[in-house]
Amino acid sequence: MRFYIITLQFLTIIPLPFSVRCEKEDLGRSTALFPLAGLTIGALLAGMNWLLAPWLARPLCDALLVTALAALTGGLHLDGLADVCDGLAARGGRERFLAVMKDSQVGAVGAVGLVLGLLLKWQALVAVPLEYKWQALLLFPALARFGQVLTLTGARHARQDGLGAAFVQGAGTVPLVVALATAAGAAFWLFGAAGFIPLAAVCLLTVAGRMFFQRRLGGLTGDTVGCISELNEILVLIVLSALP
Question: Which of 27, 62, 148, 162 is the most exposed place for a label (fewest CB within 10 A)?
């Protein structure tokens, strides 16, 4: 229960009436419950959809759901997407890339990447068939957060400081197995065997993204993990919209 609260405190800004003790080593261990926190976020989105869908047009309702997701997470991973886009656009090597990502200012390329990411997520959600929309709302945050665990496990960290380094140091095989079991169980429960298709897509994108950043930066940062997570959310919704 304590690790579940830690994941909610880190991954969301949901106000809780209490807090729990969190040591540095607890951050990595808590990654085992990242998909469960994703299911919690998805349940809140599904509940919001249940309230709004009868009264609003589908595109407007889905735009509000994307907005709610950004609000629930405090824009944590969207910031990573924007910073990585700015870093990719910057001229220079590893140190220049890291310096640009650490800058709190969002550049033009970062702003464009942020807008395109939100637009793709919105349109992918609109394209999900209505008959299994609530299942998709539950699943896509969970699979994206499993992708975070897969990104962190066994990776190198590009900086010695920051939360990204703390999570990389603490993540291990046991949390990864627990997270995979949770994600796979949720995918099968919600979509049957077809649920393994978006799960496989998340694994492929995550491994490719991690290899790219480790080769380019020598390791991962919190921003790169957030960027991969945002791309995974978009990817899962696209795959779910294409399921027969």
Answer: 162
